Amino acid sequence: MFLAILELCYLFSFGGPDGYGYLFLATRDGDPLYFHWEDITETGTRLDLGDDDYTTIDLPFSFPFYDALYNYAVIGSNGLVYFVDEYVGIENECLPTHIYDVGDLIALYWSDLNPEDSLAGVYRQDFGSYTVIEFYRVPIVGLPGRNTFEVILTPTGYIELLYLHMESYSDETIGIQDASALGGNYWYLEYLCNGEPPLRVPVDSSAVLYIPPWVSAKETTLSHRTVSTDATPLFVCKAPSLSVPSSALDDIADLFLYGADGRTILKVPNIGIGRDKSSLIIPVTTALPSGIYRVLLRGRKTERRYSILLLH
Which residues, in sequence order, are CB contacts of 84 under 8 Å at separation 6+? Predict the structure, then answer.
């Protein structure tokens, strides 16, 4: 179900971070993510969701979103998932917004949608370790065409937005925000609004992956530490692979891995990196939770610092 990285390690052009530390990857930005659609129209539960409507569902896990944990989600007919017992209307705004007194929200495709249409529907299905919410062939009121898209929520806090078949677009909003976003802390991360930037308008088989700053699959606590990619490159790696920058000139180096809090997680001495290697296989990393780590490669001639987002 997860958006897989096509390369073992790849240098990404991330969107963000926002004030809390969320980042996003997007196929429309050229990030090489593998698009994997979960069709639940035959196996999932169709929600009783009319036009200008909302409904609440239970989640099989605690979903971490910014500084809160939720065991439920509210599905809005206008292409949203949020966490307040309110209706979010048809007038979408760019983020941050409190137009309908709903602050914590995930805007999949916020617009005046009508899932009550006879050919459309909204479905949900739990898979234990993740939940899928699919908007199937839902039209934008007043426009021709139908759109099929979905969101996948995970207990680790990753949020996948998948767009299977898109036939119409007007001025939709896509992004995430926390209720406190209007307070000046920048806890929101917009992907698209009012057609800007135009190259991000969803097309068939496009995807956006929102990545929390530091959420461990083995813990229930959240980190408030903001991720900064400032002066160091940020690579995405699938364990047990770690990247090696092309600027590393030493054949032998000591590898240090640091957590988001700065403490040393791992030290591997005398690694043979060579000058033609772009990645290393470090088996012990398979025991580490997904998250962002700092890497130091210290050789006799050079010292390289960079960051990785480690996924499993």
Answer: 74, 101, 102, 103, 104
- The SS3 assignment for 303 reads strand
168 Cα distance to chain centroid: 23
Degrees to nearest 5, angle at CA 145 with 141 and 149: 90
User: Which domains, from first to last, does the chain contain?
Assistant: 14-211 (no CATH), 234-311 (2.60.40)
pLDDT, tens digit, for every residue of 223-259? 333 333 334 556 767 777 777 765 555 678 888 888 7
* Rg, the chain, Cα only: 20
pLDDT single digits (tens) 149-167: 999 999 888 899 999 999 9
Per-residue pLDDT tens for 77-100?
Answer: 999 999 998 888 888 999 999 888
Q: What tokens were used for 280? A: 């290393």
Closest among 10, 3, 4, 85 to 241, alpha carbons compared: 10
